[in-house]
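Lab meeting, item 3. Inverse folding demo.
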């Protein structure tokens, strides 16, 4: 793909688009925003494929793709906030656990996994956005529709509860 191979791009899209759509939908109930973010993400990936150096830093292509998508979602929320009320969060709707939460629960075992599962959902959301998705406090606040101070407080509470549970 880095060399402009359209078939390689199509294969990446075929393999990752369904997963990406579900993951974005878990964070945003507005299908139009999700569609826009998907389009912007894959366009950015196509344009910047030659810049991907994941193997040199231990990253994965899927992780790189998600980082781009998460940042594009935050940007979309910011654009929409200038024109109207923020879109309703998907988390306010009763849904099954996100796939990444299930994977995390299955991969992170032992005491750490138990401590993560015992965290309140609002604390786990903040940890997921900041630690797993690599978002800043500001980006997490926009993504979750929370004030930055609330994000900081929840992140601190989550870390404190994790330390206490693992002590």
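The presenter then showed the designed sequence:
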């Amino acid at each position: 793909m880095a060399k402009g191979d359209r078939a390689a791009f199509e294969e990446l899209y075929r393999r990752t688009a369904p997963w990406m759509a579900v993951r974005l939908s878990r964070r945003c109930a507005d299908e139009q925003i999700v569609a826009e973010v998907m389009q912007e993400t894959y366009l950015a990936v196509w344009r910047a494929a030659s810049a991907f150096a994941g193997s040199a830093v231990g990253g994965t292509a899927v992780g790189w793709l998600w980082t781009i998508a998460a940042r594009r979602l935050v940007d979309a929320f910011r654009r929409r906030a200038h024109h109207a009320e923020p879109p309703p969060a998907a988390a306010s709707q009763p849904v099954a656990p996100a796939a990444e939460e299930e994977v995390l629960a299955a991969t992170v075992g032992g005491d750490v996994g138990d401590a993560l599962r015992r965290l309140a959902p609002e604390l786990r959301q903040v940890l997921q956005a900041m630690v797993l998705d690599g978002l800043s406090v500001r980006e997490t606040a926009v993504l979750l529709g929370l004030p930055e101070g609330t994000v900081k407080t929840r992140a601190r509470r989550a870390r404190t509860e994790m330390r206490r549970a693992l002590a």
